[in-house]
Every structure is written in C-alpha cells, then in structure tokens.
Amino acid sequence: MEQIKVDSKSLFDFDFGELNKFSSKSDLVPETDDCYVFDENTTRAILMGFEHNLKVFINGYHGSGKSSHVEQVAARLNWPCIRINLDGHITRTELIGRDTITLSEGKQITSFQEGIIPLALKQPIALIIDEYDAGRPDVMFVIQQLLEANGKLTLLEQNSVIKPHKHFRIFATANTIGLGDPTGLYHGTNPINQAQLDRWNIITNLDFMPPDKELEVLALKLSDIPKDTLKSMVTLAQLIRQGFINGDITILMSTRNILNWAQIYFILKDIKLSFDYSFLNKCDILEKHIYEEFFNKCF
Fold first, then answer.
1. Domain edge (last residue) among 146, 176, 205
2. What is the count of structural domains for the chain?
3. Could you read off the pLDDT of 92-144 as tens digits, one per residue?
4. How distant is the alpha carbon of residue 22 from its chain centre?
5. Are 118 and 97 in contact (CB under 8 A)?
6. Are 165 and 123 in contact (CB under 8 A)?
7. Strands, E assignment, 75-168
C-alpha cells in the first residue's frame, strides 16, 4: 500500500506537521465519523504512535471514546484497523493460532491456522486491544512479545519467528492504569505486570469532553432533539460525574449513556421515563434519590 504526505491541519484542528496517509482505503479502514470531536492531547499521542511506530496505551472511564479515538484517527489516515477485546475468555490459541484437521483428497491433514495476531502482524494494520486490563496472564505474555523493541513474535508451534510489517501498529485501551480497580466500578479488571506496562512508549488519559464540546457533538448527532433538552442532559451528566468523583454515587454517566437516553427519548417523547429506562434502573436503589435530585435540578 502506497503512502502519501498530507498536512495535519487538513485532517485535524491543530498542527502536527506532515502525516503519512495511505492513498486508498481497504475494507478494514474504519468509517469516518464527520461529527467526531478530537481531544488534542490524546490525538497527538495516537499520531505519534502511527507516525513513529510507538506503542500507545490509553486509559479512562468507560464511554469516554478511547477506542473510537484511535479508529477515527486511523479513518482519516486510511489505516486499516482490527480491534480485539480481552474479555477474560480470549485464550492464547485464539490469538496465536492452533492446529486444525482438514480433508484434502479424502485424507485428513493437520495444518496450522494462524490466529489474529500473526495475521495482523504481517500487514499494515493498527491492532487495537480493548479492555487491556482484563486479559488473562497467558494472553498478556503473548502480547508482551509485541511490545519489545523489535516486536517479533515467536511461534513455538511452528518453530518460526514473525517480523512485524513496517506499518504494523499497536494500541491498547483500558479503564484502569494497570494498578487494579480501587473503586469497584470495573469488576473483572486485573493489575498489569509493571514490566509489561513499562514497555508502552506512551501512556495517556482520556477524560470526558468539556460540556460545550459534548453538547456540540450531541447536537450534530441528534439534530431532531431540541438543543435546550440536550443541554439539560449534558448538565445532568456533569452533575452525576461530579457526584461520582466526590464519592456520593457509584455509577457515572458517559457520553454513550446520553446518546442512548436521547434515542429512547426520541421514541417515547417522555424525558423522565426514557431516563429511567436507559440509566436510572441500573443504579443502586440506595442511591436513586441522589440521581432523582440531580434530574429535578436539570428538568
């Protein structure tokens, strides 16, 4: 795949010099979201990953747009992407590959079927590892090979070593920074081996958007809903997030939650019932009065 030089200002709202962009799209290039609002610090970190082959780890609250940030940068660079989710059930053989038995001319033949990592490693692909802090130890040590300076992958099953393609890139996203989850909000996450965490060249934190930016995004995506209503939704989300930071409540409202709430509201035309369906009914019953109070302040 051929790359061309483009000015970063033509793709983003800040100057990062010249960028390399593939001249054509493949089926693995994410769809461009024209409404997407980029966080400058996070975008700079991701661009360094693409431009200089650095390993980038992004942490932050759920729904803050960590994975979509990488995908939307890749979309503008025409860079193919693959996302895998370390949900605790992903095994080493699923990542690396396994021996399979096939029939050829009536005979059973054993052949090695490569997993997602060897396939991605050989191509100009950005590999995004979601829920990085939920991976099993055996899986994490497979990934650790990719974080070495040369990034080569040793396949013991094949007695072979795979050298990464010059345009292979790796990113990870997680809700924690790898030190465990003291809040209890992200059950199932694990502490990350510090020797492995040190191998990530860049670690950046992505927080929720400022209220004015969040409102701007919602207004673009939800043009059928009055802006005053969206503004009150954003204000409520801010109150809930502040209450979470203060330790008063245990569930916070993400931008994803607001979008879901707005979609249900558009169907029901009932702001309170749609709030209950989309958010309140999953909250601790002992804390519901706090969320109700926040709601009444905004509506």
1. 205
2. 2
3. 888 888 777 777 777 778 777 788 899 999 999 999 999 888 888 888 888 88
4. 22
5. yes
6. yes
7. 81-85, 97-104, 107-114, 126-130, 153-155, 160-162
